[in-house]
Amino acid sequence: MRHRDCADRRRIGHTVEHESDAPGWTGPQWARYLYSVMVPPVGSGALVQTIRPLSSVQSAPKEPPMPISRTVRSVLWSAALLAAFAAPSRAEWPEKPVTIAVGFGAGGTNDIVARAVAELLAKLLGQPVVVENKPGAGGAVAATALARMPADGYNLVATTSTTVTLDPQLMKLGFTPADFTYVAAIGEFPEAFVALPKHGWKNLSDAMAAAKATGRMNYASNTALDRMISAAIAKKAGVSLVPVPTRSGAEVVTQVMGGHVDLGYSSGAYYPQAKSGDLAVMAVLGDKRVAGLPDVPTLKELGYGVSSVNLVLFIAPKGLPSAVAKKLDDAFAAAGKDPSIVALMENRSLNAVVETGATLDATIKRHIDDFAKLIEASK
C-alpha cells in the first residue's frame, strides 16, 4: 500500500518520502499546491509544471515528472477552486459589543432613555450594548467624535436632535448633518414656557398681553434655542423678552418657583411641578401637545408661527452598510414599542415618538428647514 501511494504521487509529478511528511494543509495552501501543478512557468514552453514543494514538505523527485492529462488538469482545477473558497464565511453583524455614547451627563433624559433602550438592544442583537457618557458642548463633543469613527455599526451616539438640526446652523462645529446615519428617534422632549399660577395667565398669549403693559418681561433662559424662539415670540407680540441665563432646566424651575423671573423655558424639568399644580404651563414648543398636558396649547396654536421639536436621537457615522442599518432599524423599532419604553416615555413626559429609516431621515430634513426659518424669524 505504501509503495502504491508513492507511485500515485509520482503520477502527478511529486514524491513524498514518508507519509509523515504529508502536510495537513488548509484550503488556501492546497489551492496554491494544485495551482502549481496546472500552470507552467512563463516562457518555459512546458505544458506541465512540476510541483514546487512548500517549506513544510521535504521532497526529492525519484524520477522525472510525468505529464498530466487534460482530464486530470480539469479535475485538479475544480478542486483548487473549491479549496480556495473553502474558508469560513464572515459572521453576521454584530460580532462584538456595541457602544452607545451619550452626549450629555448621567441622569438626564438622554442618558436614562439610552440605558433603557440599550438593555433591550442587547437582547435583540445578541451582543452586549455598552453605554458611556461623553458630555460637552450640548452634545457636540460626542457627535464630533462619532463623525470620525468607522461606519461599522459598533459605535452610536444618543443625543438631542437639535444637536444636528439646529446647532450647525448657529456655529461652526466639527460635523454637519450629512456626516451621520440617522438610526432612531425614541421620545420627544416636552419643551415649554412655565410661570407661577398666581399670575392667573391661562396661556402664553395672556402673559404677552400682561407684558405689553410694561413693554417688557424677563424669563429664565437655558439654551440658544429658547433665546431664538423668545425673540420670534417677542417680535410677533410687540414686546421685549429679556433672557436671564441659567445653567440647567432645574435652575429654571428654581428661578420661576422663587419668583425671580416672570417666565421660564424648560425642556422637561418642570413636569413634576406642573403635575402637582405648583407651576402653570403657558405653551409647549413642539408640533403637537404633550400627552401628559393635553390642555396646554402649542405655540403654533396660539398664532406665533414657530415651533421646536427636539427628539432623543440615536445616530451612527454616515455610510453604514445597508444590512447593518436594517438590523439596527428593526431592533430600535422593536425596543421603542416595548412596554418598558412606553412607560418610560410616559413617566418622563416624553411624547411617544418612535421613528427609524426613511421616515426619520425625512423628519430630520424637515426640522433643519424649520430651524432655518426660525433663525430668520428671530433676527
Automatic annotation (TrEMBL):
It comes from the Bacteria. InterPro entries: BUG, Bug_dom1. Belongs to the UPF0065 (bug) family. This is Tripartite tricarboxylate transporter substrate binding protein. The lineage of its organism: Bacteria, Pseudomonadati, Pseudomonadota, Alphaproteobacteria, Hyphomicrobiales.
